[in-house]
Design a protein that fits this description.
This protein is an alpha/beta fold. The protein has 2 domains: 122 residues, 2-Layer Sandwich (Enolase-like, domain 1); 217 residues, TIM Barrel (Alpha-Beta Barrel). The protein contains 13 helices and 13 strands.
């Protein structure tokens, strides 16, 4: 079925998090989201959501979505063509930051509309099959005391996933090691442990702390220990440390991922759906990872990312967070320690309109 864009709307909400997230950069207690609806003349509505990081960013991203609405009304829903068209339109301001995020959300909604019209789950529309995707729990474990970490980890284990992420970046190495040892004593042998520094360290600090973590053993990866775009420094860490280096949530379109891979900056990659360029960008990134034989994980957006992981040849781990669950009719399902992509047509996103009204930040489209 040929679809034609009738309108693109954005609605900003702020959803309380079940667990506060303490990182080396900031403590996050609520998730500002931008919900995107792409309405077609044929009655099909594609959906997507963006994580805005800051509440104040939602109106700025929504303003770009409004511009996209103006630029694409009446156009056929052809995401690859539309991405190229919008990228050309936004060349002077740059396809970065809020512009890229808005374009990515629009792209995800386009792909959802196409899969809905075809009557297929997004994974199937992309040529794969919906299947359980191995996932780790990223819903907490920020910087806290060992006792608090233990209590939170015990609660997270009840959700049944086969991995847990721990945020590091305490003032001292000793505190980092105490947190890791607390979790290693608590976690069953079949539950993986990842650590994330959220870019907190210098290269020298990362080498020192990385060697100490190597000595502890058993970590699945060290994520973003230094500035995300310092590919030379990341490459030094990847060469020197035994524990794999994971980066990628800040890759801005597949061009950045190509540059990181060319530099040998990491052992694993984990693109973010709203930064890599939506489904269109993700599939290009997956092809890059496949060509290099690099395992690829996801960052946030588990509902849509589970579909994409099913279509990713080097798929590794799905990052599970439940931040959007309060505004979804059907949140992501955990089945036998994995996240199961929705098996109904599209990407599975459907808003709980009562919840949207309750958490709405105001008119944004």
């Amino acid at each position: 079925m040929r679809l034609e864009i009738r309108a693109v709307r954005a609605t900003a909400v702020e959803v309380p998090m079940r667990r506060a997230l303490g990182t080396s950069q900031a403590a996050i207690r609520a998730a500002p989201l931008l919900l995107i609806d792409l309405e077609t003349g044929e009655g099909v509505t594609g959906r997507a959501y963006l994580f805005c990081y800051l509440r104040a960013a939602a109106p700025a991203i929504a303003a770009i979505v409004d511009e996209i609405d103006t630029l694409t009304r009446g156009a056929p829903v052809e995401p690859v063509t539309l991405w190229a068209r919008l990228a050309k339109r936004f060349t002077l301001i740059g396809v970065q930051g809020v512009v890229r995020m808005a374009m990515a959300g629009f792209d995800v909604a386009c792909w959802d509309a196409l899969a809905l019209a075809a009557g297929k789950p997004l994974a199937s529309y992309l040529g794969a099959s919906p299947r359980p995707i191995r996932a780790y729990n990223s819903n907490g474990l920020g910087l806290a005391t060992p006792d608090a970490l233990a209590r939170e980890a015990e609660d997270m284990l009840t959700e049944g996933l086969k991995g847990i992420k721990l945020r590091l970046g305490y003032p001292t190495l000793a505190e980092d090691l105490a947190a890791v040892r607390t979790l290693k004593k608590l976690l069953p042998g079949d539950v993986a442990l990842m650590v994330d520094y959220n870019q907190a360290l210098t290269v020298a600090e990362a080498l020192a702390r990385g060697r100490a973590l190597d000595a502890e053993g058993g970590l699945t990866w060290i994520e973003e220990p230094i500035r995300h775009d310092d590919y030379r420094g990341c490459a030094e860490l990847a060469r020197t440390l035994a524990t794999p280096i994971q980066i990628g949530e800040n890759f801005s379109t597949p061009h950045a991922m190509q540059a990181a891979l060319d530099a040998g900056a990491c052992d694993y990659v984990m693109p973010d759906l709203e930064r890599i360029g939506g489904v269109t960008g993700w599939m290009r990134a997956a092809a890059l990872a496949q060509a290099r034989g690099v395992e690829m994980s996801t960052h946030l957006f588990p509902e849509v990312s589970a579909h994409l992981m099913a279509a990713t040849p080097t798929g590794h781990w799905l990052e599970y967070v439940d931040w959007a669950a309060p505004v979804l009719r059907e949140p992501a399902r955990i089945v036998d320690g994995a996240v199961m992509p929705s098996e109904r047509p599209g990407n599975g996103l459907d808003w709980d309109e009562d919840a949207v009204r309750r958490y709405r930040l105001g008119s944004s489209g």
